[in-house]
C-alpha cells in the first residue's frame, strides 16, 4: 500500500502533531505496512522521527506534493495550517483521505475525520454521507510505549512531582512552576522535562538542588517510566494529557493555548485532572498550590488515576489503522 502521513512541527509550533502521527505510523508497522512521513518542520524534529521513513519538506507551499500523493491508497493529514482548499485537492487525487482534527477546525471534504480527544463527541460534526467519523478516546493515538502499561501505584503521600510543558514550553511555564514548588515544597523531588524546542534554558544553570532532576529530550520510554514513578504531574493541556491518562497519573493541568481549553475542561468535568487555569491567569500559581493541597488526599488521586485509565486504554492507534485498512 502507498501511504503518506503529512504533518508539521518544530521549535515554533511544538511537536504534538508529529508525536501522534508517529504513533499511527507505528500501528501501521504492526500490520507490516510502512508509510512515509512528510514533515513541514525544522531540524529539531530529527531525533523524534529518526526511526521512521520520513522526509522534511514544506508540503504546504510546494505544489509538487500533489504529484507525490497522486493515486496513493491513504493520505493522512494532521495540520493546523493547511486550508480547506488543500484538503479538497488531496481528497480528489487519492483513494482515501484521512484528517486528524481537534476542534472542528474546518469543513472537511470526503474522507475520514479522526478526533481522539475526550471532547470530540461534543463538537457536533456535520453528518455527511461521504465522511466517516472516528471520535473519542477509542481513537486516541498514543506512541507504542504507551500501548501496554502496568497499573499505577498511588502512594499515601506526594513525594515525587513531574513538570512537563511539551517539547517547547512556548509560554516558559517550567521555571515559574519549579520556583513555586521549590519555595513551597522544598523536600519534594521534582522531575523536570526540558524539550528540544525550549528557547529559554539559561535559568537551569543557576539551580543547584539535590531534589531537582532535569530530563532532557525525554524519549517515550523515559516519559512512561517517569509517569509511573511520580505521584503528581503538572502539565500543559496538549497531547501529553492522554499519555498521563493512559498511565493514570493524577494531574494538574495548565492550558497554554486556546485550542487546549475544550479538552482540559472536559477532562476536568470527567474527573481525571484538576484544572489550574489559563497560563496568563493572575491567580495561576495560587490555584496550583490550592490544588496540590487538595490532591494530598490519596482517595482523590486514586479516583483520578482510575478515570484516566478507564478512558484511555492504549489501543487508539491500532483502532485507527484497523478502520483505515478495512474500509
How would you characterize the overall build of this protein?
By secondary structure, the chain is α/β, with parallel strands linked by helices. The protein folds into 2 domains: 3-142 and 314-326, 3-Layer(aba) Sandwich (Rossmann fold), CATH 3.40.50.11190; 146-311, Rossmann fold. The chain is built from 10 helices and 13 strands. The strands form 2 sheets. It has a 7-stranded parallel sheet, sandwiched between helices. Helix 1 (16-29) packs across helix 10 and helix 6 packs across helix 9 (298-311). The two termini are 14 Å apart. This is UDP-2,4-diacetamido-2,4, 6-trideoxy-beta-L-altropyranose hydrolase. Residues 166-301 form the Glycosyl transferase family 28 C-terminal domain. Keywords: Hydrolase.
Strand order of the largest sheet: 3-2-1-4-5-6-7
CATH-assigned fold name of the largest domain: Rossmann fold
Give the overall silhouette. Answer: globular
Mean pLDDT: 96
Structural class: alpha/beta
Strand content: 15-25%
CATH architectural designation of the largest domain: 3-Layer(aba) Sandwich
> What summary fits the major beta sheet?
7 strands, parallel
Order of helices and strands: EHEEHEHEEEEHEEHEHEHEHHH
Q: Which CATH class of the largest domain?
A: Alpha Beta
Give me the number of helical elements.
10
Number of domains: 2
Q: End-to-end distance, in Å?
A: 14 Å
Q: Provide the helix percentage.
A: 25-40%
The number of distinct β-strands equals 13
Oligomer: single chain
Q: For the CA atoms, what is the radius of gyration?
A: 20 Å
Amino acid at each position: 500500500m502507498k501511504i503518506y502521513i503529512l504533518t508539521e512541527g518544530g521549535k515554533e509550533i511544538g511537536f504534538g502533531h508529529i508525536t501522534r502521527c508517529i504513533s499511527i505510523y507505528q500501528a501501521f508497522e504492526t500490520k507490516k505496512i510502512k508509510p512515509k512521513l512528510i514533515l513541514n518542520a525544522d531540524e529539531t524534529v530529527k531525533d523524534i522521527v529518526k526511526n521512521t521513513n520520513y522526509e522534511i519538506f514544506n508540503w504546504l507551499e510546494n505544489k509538487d506534493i500533489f504529484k507525490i500523493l497522486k493515486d496513493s491508497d491513504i493520505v493522512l493529514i494532521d495540520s493546523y495550517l493547511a486550508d480547506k482548499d488543500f484538503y479538497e485537492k488531496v481528497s480528489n487525487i487519492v483513494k482515501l483521505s484521512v484528517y486528524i482534527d481537534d476542534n472542528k477546525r474546518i469543513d472537511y471534504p470526503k474522507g475520514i475525520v479522526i478526533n481522539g480527544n475526550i471532547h470530540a463527541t461534543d463538537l457536533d460534526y456535520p453528518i455527511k454521507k461521504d465522511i466517516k467519523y472516528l471520535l473519542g478516546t477509542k481513537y486516541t493515538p498514543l506512541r507504542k510505549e504507551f500501548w501496554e502499561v502496568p497499573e499505577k501505584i498511588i502512594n499515601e503521600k506526594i513525594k515525587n512531582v513531574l513538570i512537563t510543558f511539551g517539547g517547547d514550553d512556548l509560554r516558559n511555564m517550567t521555571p515559574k512552576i519549579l520556583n513555586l514548588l521549590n519555595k513551597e515544597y522544598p523536600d519534594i523531588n521534582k522531575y523536570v522535562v526540558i524539550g528540544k524546542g525550549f528557547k529559554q534554558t539559561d535559568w537551569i544553570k543557576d539551580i543547584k538542588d539535590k531534589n531537582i532532576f532535569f530530563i532532557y529530550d525525554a524519549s517515550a520510554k523515559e516519559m512512561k517510566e517517569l509517569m509511573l514513578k511520580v505521584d503528581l504531574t503538572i502539565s500543559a493541556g496538549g497531547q501529553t494529557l492522554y499519555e498521563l491518562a493512559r498511565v493514570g497519573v493524577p494531574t494538574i493541568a495548565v492550558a497554554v493555548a486556546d485550542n487546549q481549553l475544550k479538552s482540559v475542561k472536559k477532562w476536568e468535568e470527567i474527573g481525571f485532572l484538576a484544572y489550574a487555569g489559563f497560563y496568563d491567569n493572575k491567580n495561576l500559581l495560587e490555584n496550583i498550590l490550592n490544588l496540590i493541597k487538595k490532591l494530598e488526599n490519596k482517595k482523590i488521586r486514586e479516583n483520578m488515576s482510575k478515570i484516566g485509565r478507564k478512558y484511555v486504554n492504549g489501543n487508539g492507534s491500532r483502532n485507527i489503522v484497523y478502520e483505515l485498512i478495512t474500509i
